[in-house]
Amino acid sequence: MYRAPLRELRFVLEELLGSTALSDCPQYAEYSHELGRTILEEAGRFAESVLEPLNRSGDQEGAHWSPDGVRTPAGFKDAYRQFAEGGWPQLGSDPRFGGQPVPQALNNAVQEILASANLAFKLCPMLTHGAVHALSLCASQAQQQQYLPKMISGEWTGTMVLTEPQAGSDLALIRTRAIPEGDHFRLFGQKIFITWGEHDLTENTIHMVLARIDGAPAGTKGISLFIVPKVLIGPDGSLGERNEVRCASIEHKLGIHASPTCVMEYGHDRGAVGYLVGEANHGLEYMFVMMNTARLAVGVEGYAVGERAFQRAAEYARTRVQGKPPGAASATPIIEHPDVRRMLLTMKSCTEASRALALYAGLQLDLGAHHPDEGTRRAALERGELLIPVVKGWCTETGNETAALGVQVHGGMGFVEEAGAAQYVRDVRITTIYEGTTGIQSNDLLGRKLARDRGAAMASLLSEMTAELRAIESAVPTVLRTRDAALQGVALLERATRALLGAMATDAAHGLAVSVPYLKLCGLTIGGWRLAKSAAIAAGGLGGADRAFYEAKIHTAHFYARQVLPQALGLAQIVEGGAESVLEASAEHI
After folding, report:
1. Minimal CA–CA distance to 259: which of 108, 432, 58?
2. 266, containing H or E segment
């Protein structure tokens, strides 16, 4: 049974991120930790009682396609009704259209709870939120008034519609056409891998579609963004006739079976009616607004599934009696075996490091959007953007490793679907691919984030990490050892960053050959910094009522420092000297 980690989330939001971090932002003048706790508790209740019971049944039944549309598994439609009635789609959205402004960090925490309980369900409102964000920033006032209130209320959902069969991740190759017709366009084309592109949860779906206006420049410069409703909307806001939008099929996937991944066809006769968002030929720029929001959300999904896999594995290990560990007189629960305990601590510590990193990134985006001081806004936004590919790449890779360890803890039973551990491996696998593979994230980290300022944002982060770690003083020896290990990790990352920037100055391919190891080194090291700081904070709470919680925080951080963070040395060596082994090999060598 899933239990939302409310105490852990409160610790990160209130103690690790700091109670006054957002106090200067007018947007959050009415926000308080009491409000945050209430929202988390309600999210936990909804996830545990409504979403989690549908996770396995939804996986077993899957979504159903027919020429008339897509039917979701039993219980999903009612769960969505409760989700909308509870006001959850409003969280983090524009209050002008019925939204409830809350910090991105808190919203990330809520998204974790939903994803842990039922990733397939959570994907639908996540995409709607991304579409809402794009419309809030890029659409005309008339378009915002027409679409946002019903999307924010949950009455309608939204999608991101990018990929085409021949294009994959190379959006410069898209062929979907847009032909002007009065105040709108007619779209013709096919899109694939459209998550929740068709379903029966709501009456209307607002598709955000990338297409090329006839005569537009080739490549990414000729791409525009269009609003394409599933059902056309009348002047009075009522729903009219069905647009020329249909789901041709749904994919048969490794996991997230309850989430329909659709092949969408636009314009089988006169063309699908679409409305241009913003200026023509700026579509990719606008879509990246959605994409960055989605990348952060997918990073959260990665460790969220890892959290659920950890909970199930720990529960199994506490009840499964097998074998005698050293010193035991008889068989014991397998959690007493040192290697099982090692696996569980790996799962726990990596999940906590990922959570601390992702919520910290959310805080930076909050400050970057709403802090009144321009310099603070700019620095925070640069850091948040620097961290997005790390969160998306490292947290999802770590979530995959965590889910796989969950199967291993179960032993042979883990390979049996009835045990439940295998579903997490299947479901979480897509998170390293969604919104760009880990390689695409690492290329973004190097090519767009590290190279744009020649490493200045990374240097600022490294400096702050070093200063904070050196400032840690504690009477608890374990905390000091954790601090020292984190400092060693930061020094390795700093050295590797200098070497990488130097090599890329003469040969960009050098960086791309080791970009994924560099991204993992960033995540591993930044996670170590966050856990070392967590341990120092926890040491100050050992004298209170939450002593057991704080002791566990210190032990988890120490384990990470001793058994996980040492991987930084190997990754740094790859970054500094591993590129040639890739670049010297030809296709014939593979």
Report:
1. 58
2. strand 261-266
* pLDDT band, very low/low/confident/very high, at 19 (cuts 50, 70, 90): low
pLDDT digits (tens, 9 = 90+) for 437-476: 999 999 999 999 998 899 999 999 999 999 999 999 999 9
Per the listing, tokens 């080194």 go with 521
For CA atoms 434, 435, 441, 443, give the dihedral sign. positive
The domain made up of 156-281 has a fold known as Butyryl-CoA Dehydrogenase, subunit A; domain 2 (2.40.110)
Give the β-pairing of 245-250 and 64-66.
unpaired
Task: Tell me how far apart the alpha carbons of residues 195 and 555 are, in angstroms, rounded to a whole number.
Answer: 40
Element housing 232 (H / E): strand 231-233
Bigger pLDDT: 100 or 169?
Answer: 100
Give residue 170's pLDDT: 82
3-state helix, strand, coil in the chain (%, to 5): 60, 10, 25
Query: In this structure, what token pair is assigned to residue 214?
Result: 């006839």
d(CA 83, CA 81): 5
Contacts of 314 (CB under 8 A, 6+ apart): 335, 344, 347, 348
Residue 181 is a catalytic residue = no
- Which uninterrupted H or E stretch holds 273? strand 272-276
Exactly one of 336, 385, 397, 435 is catalytic; name it: 435
Output the CA–CA distances (angstroms, integers) from residue 75 to 57, 232, 287, 406, 483, in the order listed. Answer: 9, 28, 32, 27, 48
CATH of the structural domain 6-152, one choice from 1.10.1020.10, 1.20.1090.10, 1.10.540.10, 3.90.1150.10: 1.10.540.10
**What is the arithmetic mean of pLDDT over 538-546?**
94
pLDDT digits (tens, 9 = 90+) for 238-251: 999 999 999 999 99
Q: How many CB atoms lie within 10 A of CB 305?
A: 32
Q: Which two tokens stand for residue 134?
A: 């794009």
Q: How does residue 174 score in pLDDT terms, banded at 50, 70 and 90? A: very high
Angstrom distance (rounded) from CA 227 to CA 417? 41
Residue 430: phi and psi, rounded to 5, are -70, -20
473-494 as b/e, with b when 16 or more CB fall inside 10 Å? ebebebbbbbbebbbbbbebbb
**Rounded Cα gap, residues 184 and 272, in angstroms:** 10
The Cβ of residue 24 has, within 10 Å, a number of other Cβ atoms equal to 14
- Write the pLDDT tens digit of every residue in 179-229: 999 999 999 999 999 999 999 999 999 999 999 999 999 999 999 999 999
CA–CA gap between residue 385 and residue 457 (Å, rounded): 10
DSSP string, 178-211: EEEETTEEEEEEEEEEEETSS-SSSSEEEEEEEE
How confident is the model at residue 588, as a pLDDT? 85
In percent, the amount of the chain with pLDDT more than 90 equals: 90
pLDDT digits (tens, 9 = 90+) for 476-524: 999 999 999 999 999 999 999 999 999 998 888 999 999 999 999 999 9
Q: Is 447 helix (H, G, I), strand (E, B) or coil?
A: helix
